[in-house]
Amino acid sequence: MKSLDYKKTKFFKSYSNIHDIETQDGFEVAFVGYSNSGKSSAINSLTGQKKLARFSKTPGRTQLINFFKVVSDFRIVDLPGYGYAKAPILVRKKWEKKVYNYLEQRIQLKSLVLLMDIRYPLKKLDQKIINIAKNNKISILILLTKCDKITVNQQKIQLHMVYKQLDSLLDFFQIELFSSTKKIGIKKLELQLNDWYNQNFNN
Ligand SMILES: Nc1nc2c(ncn2[C@@H]2O[C@H](COP(=O)(O)OP(=O)(O)OP(=O)(O)O)[C@@H](O)[C@H]2O)c(=O)[nH]1
Ligand SMILES: [Mg+2]
Q1: What DSSP state is assigned to residue 58?
Q2: Exposed / middle / buried, residue 113 (Cβ in 10 Å: 0-12, 13-18, 19+)
């Protein structure tokens, strides 16, 4: 069982269109979730690099599909966040479509990290992603992000609620508390990524 050094992750390439993404060696794991759910922050925490994936207080900052290389045959993908309420509807729909196309068509995509703000989990578009993943046999690690914003008791309640709602899918999914600010759940994220890496290469 090989464990990877995520601190060595490097920016690889950005794409604005899924059709421009070329076939690449190995496989990738995509970080997906609502705009402002904490995707870029999670990638920065994982890699210990403050500005690798940009993050900002303005949701909708990441509009490109950004690729990072952990090792030559394993990539992390930061997807554009969906559902930014202040964006015009057409812009929102375009982002959503970009995400769905990528999930459905990308052969090298094996697994997803789905990030949901622990205070507002399982919103409409999260459910849609979960269904696409299920239909395409893509495994998911769910991170309930920004858990530092609520008490430990509230965290338990939210975690339990998400477990309950996804009951029938749990063979397939993992659910963890996460906070980039307080560095909670980063080890679990690393372990899951290592697991996927090893499964895909039979190490
Ligand atoms: N308190 C707290 N704030 C966080 C955490 N993670 C992210 N944030 C804040 O939430 C905001 C959005 O974080 P991003 O990482 O940019 O979110 P994103 O999902 O990449 O957003 P898009 O690129 O718009 O899709 C920023 O202001 C972050 O500082 C966390 O664990 N705790
Ligand atoms: Mg982002």
Answers
A1: S
A2: buried
Please, is 158 exposed, middle or buried when counting C-beta atoms within 10 Å of its C-beta (0-12, 13-18, 19+)? buried
Helix residue ranges, H only, 54-151:
89-105, 124-135
Q: Which domains does the chain have, with CATH numbers?
A: 6-201 (3.40.50.300)
Query: Which residue is closest in CA terms to ligand 1's atom 32?
Result: 146
Alpha-carbon span 180 to 33, nearest angstrom: 15
Residue 203 Cα to ligand 2 midpoint, Å, equals 31
Over residues 37-78, the pLDDT tens digits come to 999 899 999 999 987 877 655 555 557 888 999 999 999 999
